[in-house]
Amino acid sequence: MAFRDGPFENIKLPLAWAAAAVVVVGIITAIFMLAGGQRQAPTRMSYMRAGVETAAAPVGEALSAPVRWTGNAFDYIGGYFFAVSENRRLRAEIAELNDWRDEAIALKNINARYEKMLGVHTDPPIPMVTGRAVTDTRGPFARARLVNLGQGDGVRPGNPVLSEHGLVGRISGVSGPVSRMVLLTDVSSRIPVMVERTDARAVLAGDASRNPRLDYVRGVNMVQEGDRVITSGDGGGVPRGLPVGIVAKGVDGSWRVKLFSERVAIDYVRVLLFQDFNQLVDPSALNAAPLAALDSAPAPTPQQAAAIADATTRRAVANAAAAERARLAEANAVAREQAEAAARRQQEQAAAAAPAATPAPAGNTPG
User: Sorting pLDDT into bands at 50, 70 and 90, what band is 175?
Assistant: First the structure.
């Protein structure tokens, strides 16, 4: 039986519309499959995923613009109605921050003087670029963002990302104009950190919650609630001293960190163009021969040659005198030992001859 003779003979479906619907559904499905990120073949999918992210970044930026404008409008209205209380709060904060500013300036001057006296070589400043976290991205990471910065801006995988409050995450992938940022709350995020009060080292491990865990804490009773956490710089992947958050006790009894970056929405971010500590020094200087300058040293002057010869002569005379004193001391010790041995022999001989010279007793004399 033909298709037109069956129960669907009255259905009239335009072929052009049907084909267009199939194509659209196929394209949408392909985009979701590419953006979903299959772990089985990362090498084949990386270029496709980068292309999808590059194409999705402008679209996400355009779609997020109304939401951002709406939020700015609500902030403007709220600031207008609460301007008086906000001004009072800001005046109190400014009065408090003025004291901290004066103390910070004084400590900075003292620290600079100490560094100059001790000859401390400080780390050079790390360049950074500013961009916008566009939208969430689907892929192998549960919590990630697209940033409108890429290879043209000098961004590389592993670069730390900061907001105006603290560390946000790290760059995990880079394409031409776009890069993917993995947040600290992602399950694959591991950052070496330290407790600023006690210098206790730990690992900040994300678990898809707003407050990552503190794992592998070194020491006993080294962490307290309210301690400030910063990056430790261990491993060389992240520079030391970046603010991270505040320690808090979790409902499961583990130590967790309330991130500074979670206080407000993550919109504008700064990417530190930092990969490892090798970029802070010259690798060729580390590999240079330690005695390479001896071959190119200038010839000594006559005065220097005379001083060198005099020092060499004095050293030889001192060595000869020390050797002579050692020889005399050894000869005296040998002579002393020989004299003591001769004295012992004489005493033994005298002790052996003493019984033969003793007279007989008086009771045995004949009458």
Answer: confident
Give this prediction's pTM: 0.52
Contacts 24+ apart (CB under 8 A), 283-290: none
HEC assignment per residue over 80-146: HHCHHHHHHHHHHHHHHHHHHHHHHHHHHHHHHHHHHHHCCCCCCCCCEEEEEEEEECCCCCCCEEE
Tell me the mean pLDDT in the region 23-42. 59
**CA torsion through residues 252, 258, 264, 270, sign:** negative
Which residue pairs, CB below 8 angstroms and at least 24 apart, start in 155-159? 155/129, 155/179, 155/271, 155/273, 156/273, 156/275, 158/237, 158/275, 158/276, 159/271, 159/272, 159/273, 159/274, 159/275
- Asked if residue 223 has pLDDT above 60, the reply is yes
Instruction: Report the alpha-carbon distance of residue 258 to residue 3 in Å, rounded.
Output: 65
pLDDT single digits (tens) 250-269? 888 899 999 998 888 888 89
Q: What's the N-to-C CA distance of the chain in angstroms?
A: 175
Pick the CATH number of 19-62+127-279 from 2.40.10.340, 3.40.350.10, 3.30.750.24, 3.40.47.10: 2.40.10.340
Mean of pLDDT over the chain? 78
